[in-house]
Amino acid sequence: MNVLAIVGSPRKGKATDTLVDKAIEGIWTKRPASKVKKLHLVERDINYCRNCLTCRDSQTDAPVARCIIRDDMDDINNDILDADALIFGTPVHMGYATAVMMTFLERICWTFAKPEKQVLTIKGCPGPRSDKARKAIIIVTSGIVPPHLRIFCDWATGQIRGVVKDSLNAKVVGDLYAGDIERRGVEHYFEKAGKLGQRLV
What we know:
Order of helices and strands: EHEHEEHEEEHEHH
Low-confidence stretches: none
Structural class: alpha/beta
CATH class: Alpha Beta
Distance between the termini: 8 Å
Largest sheet: 6 strands, mixed
Number of strands: 8
Strand content: 25-35%
């Protein structure tokens, strides 16, 4: 199984990065032969979407439409195509995913989706270009807000869940909200992150 871990934290080695590593350890505990590639988005050259809609309007039969921007997303798109399972990790900033994760999500939306899906009476919603089924897990961290108040500060999980379903044909099999890390410590969530990784595979 090929697993791609996408880390949207601006800080390497901190809570989000560490919990993603614990999820990866869980994967290897259950399926030692799994191949895992970890991407730190902050280290990559990912430009903002220009809203030109070239990818959205592409008539290609390929699983990914070509973006007009040439940057590291070209390689990342290939990594996504190879992946059977995905890990998304991000802190919440003002309740949402980080800016670099948001930029990444915007760039994959229409390159991996086409406007053929209908939701209720709305036509033209994104639906996956590929029928390759994937699985995903989401890890969200918050330094201050505890889990029982998650509803007030975690809009990132739902947003990521929607994009990976609509664009990457991925089913989210679990998520972890690791809150109040400044007081509890990241170690409080190690076991949960490991079990989440096991669930992915």
